[in-house]
Design brief:
Helices cover about 40% and strands about 20% of the residues. The chain contains 13 helices and 12 strands. The strands form 4 sheets. A 4-stranded mixed β-sheet has the order 9-10-11-12, with helices on both faces. Strand 9 (about 220-225) and strand 10 (about 230-235) form a beta hairpin. The longest helix has 16 residues, at about 255-270. This is DUF559 domain-containing protein. It comes from Solirubrobacter phytolaccae.
């Protein structure tokens, strides 16, 4: 019979609590939970001394780091999920950023959890319907699945904003299936976003485009390809198209050339093309609104 293997550290000695802690932390971005510290053999007093000595640094309640460096956003996200306990995952803005499919950001870290938590700098969304099938991982960080992200985003985004998230997910070969959202009050937003995606809309791509849709105008087609070009806003019956140009976009020669070609093709097919700087839409929306309405009124459907 083979002898029992004794787990030892350096030079045949049993690992010290600090060695155990470093081993655990090395597998999870230099993070360790209070429970793991206790399992490593530390008492509350031992933990407090290491915090005072700078060996451990508190990140969130119940979560510490062994690193002295500034923690990355991804590491902070992992720490937030650890602080919320088993079954929790990054959600909403933080999750969309990690997938690389959302332009929306927040100063808070969003976490969905089956239990209630209050953490500084973290927005915890308690969900009684959250299951293990709603959670996956990216680079070792628990996150909601893409379908669950759509459902959560429908609570905070417009249909056109969510349509852009779906569009970016399709580009990344991620799920673009309409998720079930029984009992959720956001079902209309969800359904509208997927309808827009099915119609070829890329949704809104910028805050200026969001602001344009907030103007009191008839609803246009938004970022749908027409005549080989994606057009920001288009009213096909009135033959009117609107482009909203950002600062960097205007300064790039190739962007200006592409814009000129798009405008030329649209005008050749009978369109009136209006262009507005993003700043005009954001800060002088009433002027933009009047000009578009005037143009629509003189371009009636044939």
């Amino acid at each position: 019979m083979s002898p029992k293997v004794r787990h030892t550290g350096v030079s045949g000695h049993t690992p010290s609590p600090d060695q155990r802690i470093r081993g655990v932390a090395a597998r999870q971005r230099d993070l360790v939970t209070l429970t793991q510290l206790r399992h490593a053999g530390l008492t509350n007093g031992g933990i407090a001394r290491r915090v005072d000595d700078g060996v451990l640094r508190r990140v969130f309640r119940g979560v510490y780091t062994t690193s002295q460096a500034v923690l990355s956003p991804e590491t902070l996200g992992l720490a937030a999920t650890m602080a919320c306990g088993p079954g929790a995952g990054l959600s909403h803005y933080a999750c969309g950023t990690l997938y690389g499919i959302s332009r929306f950001r927040s100063s808070l870290i969003d976490v969905v959890s089956p239990r209630k938590r209050t953490l500084e700098g973290v927005r915890v969304h308690r969900s009684r319907t959250l299951t293990s099938s709603d959670i996956t991982s990216i680079r070792g960080i628990p996150v909601t699945t893409v379908p669950r992200l759509y459902v959560d985003f429908a609570d905070v985004l417009t249909p056109f904003q969510l349509a852009n998230v779906i569009h970016e997910a399709a580009y990344e070969n991620l799920s673009t299936s309409l998720p079930e959202a029984a009992g959720r009050h956001n079902q209309k937003t969800l359904a509208k976003a997927f309808e827009l995606h099915a119609q070829g809309s890329a949704g809104t791509r910028s805050p200026a485009e969001d602001a344009f849709l907030d103007l009191d105008l008839p609803e246009p087609l938004v970022n749908v390809v027409h005549l080989g070009f994606e057009v920001d806003f288009r009213w096909p019956e009135q033959l009117v198209a609107v482009e909203v140009d950002g600062g960097q976009h205007v300064r790039r020669p190739y962007s200006r050339n592409a814009d000129a070609r798009r405008d030329e093709v649209l005008r050749a097919h009978g369109y009136t093309v209006l262009r507005f700087p993003a700043k005009a839409v954001l800060y002088r929306g009433s002027e933009v609104e009047r000009r578009v309405l005037d143009t629509l009124s003189v371009r009636p459907a044939p």
